[in-house]
Write a structure and sequence with these properties.
Blueprint lengths: L8 H10 L1 H8 L7 H12 L4 E5 L5 H8 L3 E6 L2 H10 L5 E3 L12 E7 L7 H14 E12 L5 E3 L6 E3 L2 H10 L2 E9 L8 E8 L5
Bound molecules: S-adenosylmethionine.
Length: 210
């Protein structure tokens, strides 16, 4: 296999923008999310009374799901086409165009963050900064749920949209720990048909960290 090229946030945004309607048609509904994953997301985020962010919300179906669970959720994504679709489809949920690597400090500390397959395009060198940024948004004890492609070694691959990375679960868990999180749950599912090996880590923001 040839060398897989790292991509910038602008390239990620452009790649998803050019495929936005196709992505929405194929993957933009809860039918494509495994029931176990929905339960896990709800278990960690659904009961929170403070603000919750769905960072890299794409078409917004998981923001809609969290809203229907009673969360005060805001969806944020790089891609204007996704945000326009999400606003039309879930008119009661606030959505914003923005980058999870460059978020303004919120007026109120955040109780929970979902990053469902939205950290996958970050270069390993960018991931730590992104995780520290997310931890700083969170109130002490705040919840984070990360869904990602799992693999035996950390490596980039040609994802259908643009370059993405698969991560060993232990290595991503170590990155979370270094960024000031404590793991509270993990879940893994092997390859299923065309679906690549999948993992989820749920964590809490430590009360004191650098
Ligand atoms: C694989 S899709 C997942 C979308 C959605 N979470 C879902 O489950 O369908 C990755 C999403 O992350 C978004 N994304 C990637 N990098 C981002 C960044 N730096 N800031 C905000 N969104 C980002 C992309 O625009 C895209 O919508």
């Amino acid at each position: 296999m040839g060398r897989v090229r790292p991509v910038s946030s602008l390239e990620v945004q452009q790649a998803y923008s050019s495929l936005a309607q196709r992505y929405i048609d194929l993957l933009g509904s809860l039918d494509t999310v495994h029931p176990d994953d929905l339960q896990l997301i709800e278990r960690h985020l659904g009961h929170l009374s403070g603000p919750v962010l769905d960072l890299g919300c794409g078409p917004g179906h998981l923001s809609g799901f969290l809203h229907s669970s009673g969360c005060r959720v805001t969806g944020i994504d790089l891609v204007p086409e996704f945000i326009a679709h999400a606003r039309r489809t879930y008119p009661d949920v606030p959505f914003e165009v923005g980058s999870l690597t460059d978020l303004a400090r919120p007026e109120e500390p955040v109780s929970g963050v979902l990053t469902w397959y939205s950290l996958i395009h970050l270069r390993p060198g960018q991931l730590d900064g992104a995780l520290i940024g997310i931890r700083r948004l969170l109130a002490p004890g705040g919840a984070l749920v990360v869904g990602f492609f799992e693999g035996p070694v950390r490596e980039p691959f040609e994802h259908r949209v643009t370059t993405a990375y698969r991560w060993p679960v232990d290595e991503l868990a170590d990155r979370l720990a270094s960024a000031g999180f404590v793991e509270v749950e993990r879940s893994q599912r092997p390859q299923e048909g065309e679906r690549r090996p999948h993992a989820v880590l749920a964590a809490r923001a430590l009360r004191r960290h650098r």
